[in-house]
Amino acid sequence: MSAHPSTDQHPATTPASGTPLLEVTDLAVEFRTPDGAVRAVDGLSYRVEAGRTLAIVGESGSGKSVSSLAVMGLLPDNARVTRGSVRLAGTDLLALSRKEHRARCGEQVAMVFQDALAALNPVHPVGYQLTEALRARRGLSRGDARKRAVELLDLVKVPNAKARIKEYPHQFSGGMRQRVMIASALAMDPDVLIADEPTTALDVTVQAQVLRLLAEIQAERQMGLVLITHDLGVVAGVADDVTVMYAGRAVEQAPVVPVYTTPAHPYTRALLRSIPSAAGTGRLPVIPGRPPSPAAMPSGCPFHPRCDAVRDVCRTEVPPLATPAPGRTSACHFAADIMAGREPAAADADAVGPTDADPAAVEHRDGHAMAADQATVPTLDDQDTGGSDD
Amino acid sequence: MTEPVLEVRDLVKHYPVRNGLLRRSVGAVKAVDGVSLSLGRGRTLGLVGESGSGKSTLARVLVGIETPTSGEVLVDGEDVTRLNRAGRKQLRRDVQMVFQDPYTSLNPRMSVSEIVGEPFAIHGIDPAGGRRTAVGELLELVGLDPDHANRYPHQFSGGQRQRVGIARALALRPKILVCDEPVSALDVSVQGQVINLLEGLQDELGLSYLFVAHDLGVVRHIAHDVAVMYLGRIVEEGPETEVYDAAQHPYTQALLSAVPVPDPSVRLVPAGGSPPVESGVSTGSTNGERSTNGVGSTNGVGTTAVRRLPIVLEGDPPSPVDPPSGCPFHTRCWLAPTLPEAQPDPIPSYPPTDRPDAGLRLVPSVCETEVPALDAHPGAGRAGTPTDPADSAASHVVACHFARELIVPGVGA
Ligand SMILES: Nc1ncnc2c1ncn2[C@@H]1O[C@H](COP(=O)(O)OP(=O)(O)OP(=O)(O)O)[C@@H](O)[C@H]1O
Ligand SMILES: Nc1ncnc2c1ncn2[C@@H]1O[C@H](COP(=O)(O)OP(=O)(O)O)[C@@H](O)[C@H]1O
Ligand code: SF4
Ligand code: SF4
Ligand SMILES: [Mg+2]
Ligand SMILES: [Mg+2]
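^ thats the input. predicted complex w/ magnesium ion below
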C-alpha cells in the first residue's frame, strides 16, 4: 500500500477556502439481510472544509457509522452503495476500485473509532502497532519509525511516551488508548479525520482532554474534522457545522449556532428539548416512541409517527429538502414555520400529534412486534430527498 | 429532613489481589473505602464520579449482591449486615436493583412474565390475586402492555426492556431502588421516557432512589441530593442545587467544568474563524464569578462566543490498589498547587516516578498527609452562608482541607 501512484497525481494540497476537502452527495447504502434489502443510509449529503469541524448527530442506528464506513471504503461485504458520490479533493472515490479507494483514503482520510480497545491489537505493544504502520505505508526505517511513533505519542500527550511505547493496550486507560488511536490516525498526515464517537466511552474529564487535543491538532494542521456523536453538548462545544441524521437521512443541516437557536426540523427541536436542564423541574419533554428500523420505514416523512407538528401530508408525502434560510436545509414540509417557531399552517382537523402524556401507549403502537404491520419499505423513487445543499 | 430510609456508615469493600502460585493475597483493590451516606425517604440521591470510582461496587453492596468488608448498612434504622440469613433476606426485599444494560441483564430464555414474577418464586411469595395478576399489574405500572407478558426480551426495544427490569425490581414492593446507570445505554429520546417513568413511580409509590449515573445533566434533573465519589470515597455531598451551583470540592468543580453544555455560545474550542472571548471558570479564587455568556446570535459561526475553559485534570485516576496518602485527590488536584500553603516538602508526590514533572508538583503538606474529613465548611459558601446543621441528610459536606466555593457555569443551567 506504500506510495500508491495515484497520490502523485493528486497531491494532498489544501484547496482554496470554500472548496470542500470532502464532499458526500446523495449517498445511499443498502445491506442485504435474510429479510431482504435494508437501506441504512438514504440520501446523505455533506461537505467538510479545511480547518472546520462538521458534527454528525443522531441516535443509534441512524446511519452515522455506516455512512463513514462507506466514505472510507470499509463497508462490510453484505453492504453496497446504491447511489451518490464521495469526492475527495475533487476525485469521486466511489468511481475507483475498492483497492484504489482505500489507498486514497489511507493517504488523505483517517478514521478514529469509538472502541479503541477493540481497534488495537492486544498481543502487540502499542509502539509496534504505530511503527509497523509507518514502516509499511511510509517506508520508514525501523529507527525512524520508532522516532516518529514517539513524536506522535508526544503530540497526543501520552506522558512518558518513550517508555510507554513498549506497553500493551490493556496497560493503557481508556483515554490513553483513544490518544494512541488518534496518534495512529495522524501518522499519515490526513487532510480529513473522521472520528466516530471518539469520546462516548470516556469520562467527561477525559472527554474534555481528548476534545481539546483534537481541536488543537486540527487548528494546527488545518484538517477537516468529521465528528460523529450523539451528544448535543459535545456538538455545541466544538462543531462549526452540524448535520442531524434520522433514519439514514440528513434531516437538518446548518451552522452550529442556528441549530440551537432556531432549529428548522421538529426532530432537532425535540432532541434539544429532551436534554435535562436545571430549570426543568417537572417531567422531561420526551420524543414518544423510538426510531424506526430501516426494515420498517414509515410512509411519508420517516419522523411522522413521533412528530409533534405532524399534518396529514406528512403521512403520505416524503418531505423535500427545503432551504429555510441560506446555508441551511431541513427535510420537513414545514421547515420555514418550524424555524420561525410557528405552528405549521396547514389546516388539519384530526392531526393529533403524539403527546408525552402516555408514552407507553405510543410504545405499544410503535413496538417491535408491530413493526411488521407498518413495514412500508420505500422504493428508490419516493426517496427524492437527496441532493446537496445550496 | 425526614429520618433517612437508608443509611450507610463507614462502608468498606476491598477485593483481595492475589499473586503467584500460592494465590497469596498481596494487597487489595480498595473499591469502596469508607463511605457514609444517607438517603431520605421519598428522595433521590444521585451518585456521580469517574469510571472506577466505586459506584457500582457500592450499589452491589447496598442490594446485598456483595457483602461489605466492614461498615454498616441501615435500612429503616436496622443494620442489614448484622442480621441473620432470614432477617437479611426479609430486609433485602426492601432494597432492589435496576441495572444499566437492559440488553444483558435480562435472561433471554425467560419470558417477560417469568422475569417479572421471578422474585415471587425466589422469596416464595404468593401475591394477593395470584402471580399472573400481579405480573400484569406490574407491567401496567411501568407502561407495558400486560398482553405482552409471554414475549421474550429480544422482542422489546431497549427502553421497553428497561421497563421490564423496573417492573421486576418493583415486584416485592421495595422501599428503595438502587439504579446503576439505568438510562446510560438508551438513546436520548428514550432516556427521557424512562426518567419520567421513574419520577412518576416515585410520586405514586413513595420510593426512594439511589441513582448512579455518569451523565451529570441527568443526575441534576432527577436527584434531590448528590454525592460525588472519587477513589472509593465520597468527596462532596449535598442538595442538588448546592453541589451543582456552588461546588466546594476541587474535584466536583473539575467534573462540572468538563461537562459539555448544549449551548454554542459557550464554546469548548473557538468556532472556525473568530477567536472567542476566553473566560470560563476562574480558578483558585475564593469567590468564583459566573461568567457571562456571549449573546447567541443567529447568523451562524463567527459569532462571538465565550470560550469555556474546563479545568483539565492531569492524567487518570490513581489505582485503587495503592491510593495516594492523605487526600486521595492530591495527585490530580488543580487547587492544591495554587495555594500559598503549597511549599517544598520532604514527602515525595505520588506516583513517585511515573510523571516527567514528578517532584515538581508541590501541594500543601496537609494534603499529602491527612485524609480530609467529610465536613460542612460553612465559611466556604457564598457570602459565608452557613448550611443548617439540623438539616442533616441534606447538608452540604466536603472532604477537602481547603474547601471553597467555585461557581462553574454550565451543567443543565
Ligand atoms: N470483583 C472485583 N474484583 C476486583 N476488583 C474489582 C471488582 N469489582 C470492582 N473492582 C474494582 O473496584 C473499583 C471500582 O469499580 P466499580 O465498578 O465500582 O466502579 P464504577 O464507579 O461503577 O465505574 P464505572 O463508572 O466504570 O461503572 C475498580 O478499580 C474496579 O476495577
Ligand atoms: N452489518 C450490517 N448488516 C445489516 N444491517 C446493518 C449492519 N451494520 C449496520 N446495519 C444497520 O444500518 C443502520 C445504521 O447503522 P449505523 O450506521 O451503525 O448507526 P449509527 O452509527 O448511527 O448508530 C442500522 O439500522 C443498523 O442496524
Ligand atoms: S414533514 Fe411533517 S412529520 Fe415530518 S418533521 Fe415535518 S412536520 Fe413533522
Ligand atoms: S485536600 Fe488538598 S489535595 Fe485534597 S482536594 Fe483539598 S486542596 Fe486538593
Ligand atoms: Mg455508530
Ligand atoms: Mg459502574
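Chain A has 15 helices and twelve strands.
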